[in-house]
Design goal:
This protein has seven helices and twelve strands. With 291 residues, it is α/β, with parallel strands linked by helices. It has one domain. Strands 1, 2, 5, 10 and 11 form a five-stranded mixed beta sheet that branches. A five-stranded mixed beta sheet has the order 6-12-9-7-8. Helix 2 crosses helix 3. The longest helix is centred in the middle third of the chain and has 26 residues. The protein starts with 10 loop residues before the first helix and ends with a strand. 32% of the residues are buried.
């Protein structure tokens, strides 16, 4: 089983430690050497959070924008969340300026975690070259798992885009962009808009027509670019305090029979699975905006 030592103090320490550990791909290669097509490895971490990117240009997965709770190391029964006042609620002193004072408080059980799965088909004999096979697991299978994870977190069942209570914003109002208006609205609710998720086409359009993306990043907004948000829309919110990613802290990689329609032709296939789910604590601190 792959062990971790808990939260490291700096990103540099994380990178240093990972270089000294066996990668998920290396562990699977060693298992495959012993068991062949019966190879299966269970990990006691979420493997989409174990690899550092080799890209010169960083592009962050959606999981990186959330506060992740590893339920295997930090078990929880419940999570807290708030909702806006309902029609007919009694007026709350001070809520005309501090809107959040009128919110209602709730407790809910941790929801059932969702399974995220990815598949790759292994070219015949690739496992005979351990270094290449390790790279294939790490940077093809797990990268595909990261993409599938983005779907789970954002647009799948229980994804952020399907969360009830998140307001839609189509008009920039007195601002030059709906993104900036949403950032202001989050702060008017007492939060901080520290994250933005948008389609690459909108990121590069904004980059080509002005300094909005640079201004946001320099102002501390963490930006995630992903196809899983429809072009023309974006999610703005207080990800640091307003949402959480509950994570099982375990994963599996194994040879398996893929479902029909997964590949164009038969051949040995490997699947990877992780288990997680997003919850929103402060839905009033998130906006789905038209850009």
């Amino acid at each position: 089983m792959l062990k971790t030592d808990g939260i490291k103090e700096t990103l540099a320490q994380v990178v240093s430690d990972r270089r000294q550990e066996l990668s998920p791909g290396r562990m699977f290669v060693e298992c495959c050497t012993n068991k062949g097509l019966d190879a299966a490895v269970e990990y006691d971490v979420t493997i989409t959070d174990t690899l550092t990117s080799s890209r010169r240009k960083s592009r962050y997965p959606a999981r990186n924008i959330f506060k992740a709770i590893d339920l295997s190391r930090d078990p929880r029964q419940f999570y807290w969340h708030e909702s806006p006042p309902e029609p007919g609620d009694a007026p709350i002193d001070g809520a005309d300026v501090r809107r959040e004072l009128a919110s209602r408080f709730h407790k809910s059980p941790i929801p059932e975690l969702l399974t995220t799965t990815a598949w790759v088909q292994v070219p015949p004999g690739l496992w005979e070259d351990p270094e290449t096979f390790e790279s294939f697991i790490n940077y093809r299978l797990i990268v595909r798992l990261c993409t599938a994870e983005n779907h789970t977190i954002l647009s799948g069942e229980g994804g952020l885009l399907n969360m009830p209570g998140i307001a839609r914003m189509t008009d920039p109002g007195p601002f030059t962009s709906t993104i900036l208006r949403a950032c202001n609205e989050v702060e008017q609710m007492g939060g901080t808009a520290d994250g933005l998720i948008l389609n690459p086409v909108d990121y590069y359009r904004a980059m080509g027509s002005g300094t909005l993306m640079t201004d946001l990043e320099q102002n501390g907004v963490f930006i995630v670019r992903t196809r899983l948000v429809e072009p023309g829309s974006a999610i703005v919110g207080d990800f640091g305090h307003g949402a959480q990613l509950f994570d099982a802290g375990r994963s599996v990689i194994r040879f398996a029979e893929p479902p029909p329609g997964t590949f164009a032709e038969p051949g040995p296939a490997i699947m990877a699975e992780i288990y997680e789910r997003v919850v929103v604590n402060l839905p009033t601190n998130f906006f789905l905006v038209t850009v």
